[in-house]
Write a structure and sequence with these properties.
With 346 residues, the protein is α/β, with parallel strands linked by helices. It folds into two domains: 4-119, NAD(P)-binding Rossmann-like Domain (Rossmann fold, 3-Layer(aba) Sandwich), CATH 3.40.50; 128-292 and 320-345, Dihydrodipicolinate Reductase, domain 2 (2-Layer Sandwich), CATH 3.30.360. The chain contains eleven helices and 15 strands. Strand 11 (246-253) and strand 12 form a beta hairpin. The longest helix is centred in the last third of the chain and has 20 residues, at 314-333. The radius of gyration is 20 Å and the shape is globular. The two termini are 35 Å apart. Keywords: Oxidoreductase. GO terms for molecular function: inositol 2-dehydrogenase (NAD+) activity. This is Inositol 2-dehydrogenase. InterPro entries: Gfo/Idh/MocA-like_OxRdtase_N, GFO_IDH_MocA-like_dom, Myo_inos_IolG, NAD(P)-bd_dom_sf.
Length: 346
Amino acid sequence: MNHIRVGIVGLGRLGKIHATNIARNIPGATLQAACSIVEAELEFARNELGVEETYQTFEEMVDSPNVDAVCIVSPSGFHPEQIQLAMEKGLHVFCEKPIGLEIEDIEKTIEVIDNHPDQVFQLGFMRRYDESYQYAKKLVDDGELGELTVIRCYGIDPSSGLESFVKFAGASNSGGLFADMSIHDIDLVRWFSKKEVSRVWAMGKNAAYPELDQVNELETGAAMMQLEDQTMAILVAGRNAAHGYHVETELIGTKGMIRIAAVPEKNLVSVFNENGAVRPTSQNFPERFQQAFQNEMKEFISCIREKRQPEVSAYDGLQSTIVAKACQQSVDTKGLIEIESAKIFS
């Protein structure tokens, strides 16, 4: 294939990022089709991105003879069915996390993916494609830190979005703080360590919006995890960072330590004024991981053209979801949760 024709489903905030990248920033790719139940989103695809084919149903889009691959950015509950349908139509699939909301659905979806080995499937763990994280990963793999002992991850959304999340939580299911947000950090823990998580203990607190207690959602949560080789991992997740979008990772080993984005800097500018010396910070995930989103989509297209599978797999999505659900179970039961890897993949 000289040019991969992609159809996208879902044109919300993240969907528009992927759609714009495919249309403008990914060599060898064309945004051929778009699907949404929101007419304004389809107008955006036609008028702003020049998309030739627009559809209101996913079934219609994957029936198009002009589509080679799909990018799934729809609500998480639709992912298993849409992945299966696209695979059965012979299409390559890029899907945003998670693969599904329930472990059983994810396992069944992976069986479908495995039954189509000639089609590319890639899951949207974009932090693996961030240049800083890739640099740190090479240092770890080259043994520069020695043996890993502790991994610490912060993933905190800006407080500017908290009020809107509270309204969303009252009407919809996000999957919970750990599945919705910490799943990226859980994937990083597995990626850096090459080990599975064996047990977790998690907790949470709602301070700014205690009403989240009523819908079983968390404003801030923390988890301590033990990996199968006894490496320790600490996660902090939240929705209330006053300074902006805070994603930070620390790796401690027997020979040294790495910190990635200890200060979530927007750029290399320092502002000197009545507030002192100030470093602007990233305000949201599209800004912080702009290049990573492009890099992961470039990898997806390259995998299709080169007939190979990406490093990040559906199994990574399954394992991260298992851990995220165990964290939520720990919060609910106030207990230590032992984790067993999915038996069909052990």
